[in-house]
Isocitrate dehydrogenase [NAD] subunit, mitochondrial (Pristionchus entomophagus), 351 residues
Amino acid sequence: IPGPRGNTLAKYGGRHTVTVMPGDGIGPEMIGHIRTLMKYCNAPVNFEEVQMTSTPYDGDMEEVIYAIERNGVGIKGNIETKFDDPAFSSRNVELRRRLDLWANVLHCVTIPTVPSRHKDIDIVLIRENTEGEYSGLEHESIPGVVESIKIVTQDKIERVARFAYEYAVLNGRKKVTTVHKANIQKLGDGLFLQIAQEMAKEYPSIEFDQMIVDNACMQMVSRPQQFDVMLMPNLYGNIISNIACGLVGGPGLVSGMNMGDVHAVFEPGTRNTGTGLAGKDIANPTAFLRAGIDMLRYLGCHKHANVISDALWQTLTEQGIHTSDIGGSAKTSEVVEATLRNMERMLPRYQ
Ligand code: ADP
Ligand code: MG
């Protein structure tokens, strides 16, 4: 992960403290599974749990923000956003904006045993995470006429574009494709494209490519293997990320990282609550478990990250233990149990 950060990580007695926000839906039970696996391999992580759900109480957002500022790291479930109430804006968006978590990163990779239309997908999706259509500025000028303001700024485009190119270099990637609609949004998306194109000159080892968002959607579903790293403004990034997650098996598989200059928050990539699955022991825990693995890597706990990651991979591939969303009949707890047994066998090799 590129960029200056990590200096604010809370560490006492050799253990990290991370802020946990279980959120709504399946969040709380999934966080429970993450804790079980981390404890099993003695990951040096303490959890400080703070509540933030779709039912706000006075000061809960401040409490969450203080806790993440103190610890430097958070892991979260999604918070339900009611969209029939204009006064209720997304608390997930507010959190990202207040902590200035400006880059969203998803890594979508084909899992060999998971049924999917396409094979060999390996795409890193990097999305501007704070502005654009998510500026939250809307008003009804006169009855029946609404203005929704999309704001883009040079600084914020530059930092996320820089992140994408640096990420590509650090991770041995070959190409960064910038997604835009500069043919219609000539100024806003034009600026995004222009900055990405200019900056590409500083990275001669990385191929520059650009694609209009509608074509990018079509290319994603017809020939996704052509993509390597994708750099996207906020809303297009949201949509394309969900297409990518769908292509590799749906909302239960992919994790997402929200990175700022000094703080990071980890969550499932498609940001679903899975409210309909809560309490039934049927949700796919992979996306959440991978968020936990990402967090361990961020904290520098590579051995712990590797053992959980390899054990989970074995569960999903060699053992083919799948929840119903990816064509199996296993319960959530069976995936977790199998992963624990795999860890038990592997652990001596990871000491
Ligand atoms: P809801 O909150 O109505 O359950 P979401 O928007 O949270 O819906 O999720 C979209 C869809 O993805 C739903 O069908 C949900 O059941 C499914 N889904 C979300 N998370 C998971 C998961 N971890 N495992 C399996 N299916 C999931
Ligand atoms: Mg939901």
User: Anything to note?
Assistant: The chain has a mean pLDDT of 95. The longest strand covers residues 132-142. The first helix runs from residue 27 to 40. DSSP finds ten helices and 13 strands in the chain.
